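Session log. Operator J.P. requested a structure for one protein chain; no other inputs attached. Running the standard single-chain path with token output.
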Amino acid sequence: MSIFFSAYGFVDREAESIGTRSGQSIASGSIVCHGCRDDGERQNRWFTILGFGKIADAMRDLRKGDPITVTGKLQVKSRRTKTGEDRDEMEIVVDQMLSARLIEPTEGE
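Structure written below.
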């Protein structure tokens, strides 16, 4: 089952290229989204973002702190930390991305 997900946040870890044998462009980075719990306490969520092709190329132009909106497939991966604690990591395989850094300015008349 796939869950399609949209998130608005800020670049936390700048994208890194991942090499493939086929030469396909892949990039991985992370974003942080700020929110509030029901009790008003501020709560942050971190998501790994994974992009392919043109999206991967655009992700490499983003810098830490840039505002970003992503839409894609949400995947939850479980892992065990060095201390033996179980953690769930959320990853978004990006289908669409919007960032102010990526919008080309248009010239006025």
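Operator note: The chain has one domain: 3-101.
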